[in-house]
C-alpha cells in the first residue's frame, strides 16, 4: 500500500519531490527544540495549491494520515507526526507577488519566510507587522496557522490582523480561494478567520493576501532595569496603550547572563528584570519615552538607542535568548498568557514549583509583556517520561490558577492538547470538534494536533 501511495504522490508532484529516505525523514520528525520526536512514512513537497489538493485527496483515499510542515519552528510539537504520517511540506510555495504600495498589500505563498516578506516589504518602504526571532525560518503559512504574534504584536497585532485573504486546500481535495479587493467585506461567513489559528486541522493554507504598514519615520529604543518585577509591570501597563508603542519586551537577568556568557553581548543595564521599550512614529518619540521612564522605579540609568545600529545592539540580547538556551540541551518550554497583575505572583510561584520538580533546572523568563505573553524556559532540565509530564501538568494547573491561558502565540500542537480544557469550555471544545468533523470527517489531517 505504501509503494502504491508513493508512486501516486510522485505522479502529482514529481518523483524528486517525494522522499522515503530514512535519514531525511528522521530529521523531519523532530521538533524545533529537539525534545520531541515522531515517525513518518514519506515526505512530499508540492509546488502549488493544485498539487497540495491532489496530495490531500490521494492520502485521504489511501487512509494515510498527513502532517503539514512549514518552517518547523513550532514549540509545541505541532509538526511532529505520530501516526506514520505523510509529511506535507509547504517549502516550495515561495512566490511573492507584486506589492501594491497604494493599498499596502501583497499576495505570498505559504512557504515564504517572515524574513523574505520583510525584505520585500522594506524595498517598497513598507513593513510587515509580525516579527519573530525565528524570522529566517518561520513561514507565513505556519504563522497564520498558529496566529503567531511576536516582537511587534503590541503595535500591529497577531497574524490574524495582517491577513486579508487566503487560499486553502481542504481535506476533501477542494480549494477555497477567499480574497477581496475591498477593505470591508461582510458577505457571509468570515472564512479567513476560521482557518487562522486552526493549526492546519481543517485545511492547508497555500497562499495569503497580507496587509503591510507604513514605515515609521522615527524610532527610539531603550532597555531599562528593575529590581522589582511589579514595578516593571506597572511601566508596561502604562506604555502598552501609548501612542507610538512599537515593542515591549521582558527579559530576566538570567537570560542576559547566559547571552553574555555565550555571545559576549553584555546586558546594557543592571537589575533582576529588564524591559526593552521601543516607540516609533512620524515624529521623534524620544521626549515621550523619557517622560515615561522618568516616572518609573528604575535601577540605574536606561540604555537608549536613537539610531539603527544602537537600537540593534539593544535588541541583540532579546533576540539571542532562544538560541542561547538551546546550547544547554533541549529546553522545556512553556508559552503562557496572563493578566498583567498576576505576572509577578506567577513568576514567584513557578520558580518554587520548578525547584520542587527539577531543582537543577534554571528557569528563564522572557516575552511580550504588553500582552502578558510570556515564555518560561527551563534550561538544564533533565526530566523525561513521567517526571516531565508531572511538571508539565503542574505548570499548566498553576497557569490556570493565575487566570492565564495555557497557550498564547505558539498554539496547542500536540504538546498541550491534554490541557485544552483548562482554557476552553466543554461547549467551545464541542464546537471545534464539530468543525473538525465537518471539514475532515476521516480525521486524517494533522491528526496529532489540537485534539489528538
UniProtKB/TrEMBL annotation:
Q: Does Nucleotide-binding appear among the keywords? A: no
Which keywords has UniProt assigned to this entry? FAD, Flavoprotein, Oxidoreductase
- What residues does the FAD-binding PCMH-type domain cover? 36-215
| Residues of the FHA domain | 154-201
Report what the protein is called: Oxidoreductase
Q: Which GO BP annotation is one of this protein's?
A: respiratory electron transport chain
Known SUPFAM superfamilies for this protein? FAD-binding/transporter-associated domain-like, FAD-linked oxidases, C-terminal domain
Regarding protein family, the annotation reads: Belongs to the FAD-binding oxidoreductase/transferase type 4 family.
Signal peptide start-end: none
Q: Does the keyword Thylakoid apply?
A: no
What Pfam families has UniProt attached to this entry?
Answer: FAD-oxidase_C, FAD_binding_4
Q: Which Gene3D superfamilies does the entry mention?
A: 3.30.465.10, 3.30.70.2190, 3.30.70.2740, Uridine Diphospho-n-acetylenolpyruvylglucosamine Reductase, domain 2, Vanillyl-alcohol Oxidase, Chain A, domain 4
Q: Which cofactor does it need?
A: FAD
GO molecular function (one) = FAD binding
Classification via InterPro entries: FAD-bd_oxidored_4_C, FAD-bd_PCMH, FAD-bd_PCMH-like_sf, FAD-bd_PCMH_sub1, FAD-bd_PCMH_sub2, FAD-linked_Oxase-like_C, FAD-oxidored/transferase_4, FHA_dom
Residue ranges annotated as transmembrane are: none
Amino acid at each position: 500500500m505504501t509503494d502504491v501511495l508513493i508512486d501516486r504522490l510522485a505522479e502529482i508532484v514529481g518523483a524528486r519531490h517525494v522522499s522515503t529516505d530514512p535519514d531525511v525523514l528522521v530529521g523531519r520528525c523532530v521538533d524545533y527544540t529537539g525534545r520531541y520526536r515522531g515517525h513518518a512514512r514519506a515526505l512530499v513537497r508540492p509546488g502549488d495549491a493544485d498539487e497540495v489538493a491532489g496530495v490531500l485527496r490521494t492520502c485521504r483515499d489511501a487512509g494515510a494520515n498527513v502532517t503539514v510542515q512549514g518552517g518547523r519552528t513550532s514549540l509545541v510539537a505541532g509538526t511532529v507526526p505520530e501516526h506514520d504520517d505523510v509529511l506535507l511540506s509547504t517549502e516550495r510555495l515561495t512566490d511573492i507577488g507584486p506589492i501594491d504600495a497604494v493599498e499596502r498589500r501583497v499576495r505570498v505563498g505559504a512557504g515564504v519566510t517572515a524574513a523574505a516578506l520583510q525584505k520585500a516589504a522594506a524595498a517598497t518602504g513598507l513593513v510587515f507587522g509580525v516579527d519573530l526571532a525565528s524570522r529566517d525560518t518561520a513561514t507565513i503559512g505556519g504563522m497564520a496557522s498558529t496566529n503567531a504574534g511576536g516582537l511587534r504584536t503590541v503595535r500591529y497585532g497577531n497574524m490574524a490582523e495582517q491577513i486579508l485573504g487566503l487560499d486553502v486546500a481542504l481535506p476533501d481535495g477542494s480549494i477555497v480561494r477567499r480574497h477581496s479587493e475591498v477593505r470591508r467585506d461582510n458577505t457571509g461567513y468570515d472564512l479567513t478567520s476560521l482557518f487562522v489559528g486552526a493549526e492546519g486541522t481543517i485545511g492547508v493554507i497555500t497562499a495569503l493576501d497580507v496587509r503591510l504598514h507604513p514605515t515609521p519615520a522615527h524610532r527610539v529604543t531603550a532597555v531599562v532595569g528593575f529590581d522589582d518585577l511589579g514595578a516593571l509591570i506597572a511601566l508596561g501597563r502604562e506604555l502598552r496603550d501609548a501612542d507610538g508603542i512599537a515593542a515591549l519586551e521582558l527579559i530576566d537577568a538570567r537570560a542576559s547572563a547566559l547571552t553574555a556568557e555565550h555571545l559576549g553581548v553584555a546586558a546594557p543595564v543592571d537589575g533582576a528584570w529588564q524591559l526593552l521599550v521601543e516607540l516609533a512614529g512620524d515624529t521623534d518619540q524620544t521626549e515621550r519615552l523619557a517622560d515615561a521612564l522618568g516616572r518609573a522605579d528604575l535601577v540605574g540609568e536606561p540604555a537608549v538607542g536613537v539610531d539603527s545600529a544602537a537600537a540593534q545592539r539593544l535588541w541583540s540580547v532579546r533576540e539571542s535568548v532562544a538560541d542561547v538556551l538551546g546550547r544547554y540541551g533541549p529546553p522545556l518550554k512553556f508559552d503562557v498568557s496572563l493578566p498583567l497583575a498576576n505576572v509577578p505572583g506567577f513568576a514567584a510561584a513557578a520558580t518554587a514549583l520548578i525547584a520542587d520538580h527539577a531543582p537543577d533546572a534554571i528557569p528563564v523568563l522572557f516575552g511580550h509583556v504588553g500582552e502578558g505573553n510570556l515564555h518560561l524556559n527551563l534550561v538544564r532540565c533533565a526530566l523525561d517520561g513521567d517526571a516531565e509530564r508531572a511538571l508539565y501538568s503542574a505548570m499548566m494547573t498553576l497557569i490556570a490558577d493565575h487566570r492565564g491561558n495555557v497557550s498564547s502565540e505558539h498554539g496547542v500542537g500536540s504538546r498541550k492538547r491534554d490541557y485544552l480544557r483548562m482554557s476552553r469550555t466543554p461547549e467551545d471544545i464541542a464546537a471545534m470538534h464539530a468543525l473538525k468533523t465537518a471539514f475532515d470527517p476521516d480525521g486524517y489531517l494533522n491528526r496529532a494536533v489540537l485534539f489528538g
